[in-house]
Write a structure and sequence with these properties.
Layout (H helix, E strand, L loop, with lengths): L1 H15 L13 E5 L10 E6 L2 E6 L9 E5 L7 E9 L5 E10 L1 E3 L9 E3 L3 E3 L5 E2 L1
Parallel strand pairs: 1-9
Antiparallel strand pairs: 1-4, 2-3, 2-5, 5-6, 7-8, 9-10
Length: 133
């Protein structure tokens, strides 16, 4: 029994010096806008732009953002980006539109030595027509 215990201690001690695995599990880069302050009809669509690149999405279509806009994409490695958002009802009528410069942040979600990611804060579309961080 004593030999088994010594073997177990030696095995665990050998693992203690191993480097941490870099899973990148928390390395999510996304443009996310909370639209819950707005009274939007079902089927509202959004055109969201990061600098000069744009995409169209349905508001609330992503389960992680049931009251907002969610666009997974790489965030440029710069200090500030321009984010624009235009919301349209199902008929195509513009309901809300705003644009704002947003400061990026460099993060290390999986710890030191596992790479850096440039991320954006979650933005909010306000009822008074602003896009805020």
């Amino acid at each position: 029994m004593r030999a088994v215990l010594m073997l177990l201690v030696a095995a665990l001690a050998g693992c203690a010096g191993q480097p941490q695995g870099c899973t990148e599990m928390a390395a999510l880069t996304v443009v996310a806008v909370d639209t819950s302050a707005l009274d939007l009809p079902a089927g509202t669509t959004a055109e969201v732009c990061l600098d000069d690149e744009c995409t169209g999405v349905e508001v609330g279509a992503d389960p992680r953002s049931s009251q907002g806009v969610w666009w997974e994409r790489e965030i440029p490695d710069v200090e500030t980006v321009q984010v624009s958002l235009t919301l349209r009802d199902p008929a195509g009528t513009r309901l809300w539109s705003a644009s704002a410069p947003v400061d990026t942040e460099v993060t290390r979600p999986n710890g030191p030595g596992c790479g850096e990611w440039t991320v954006l804060p979650v933005l909010t579309a306000t009822s008074d027509g602003r896009l805020t961080a």
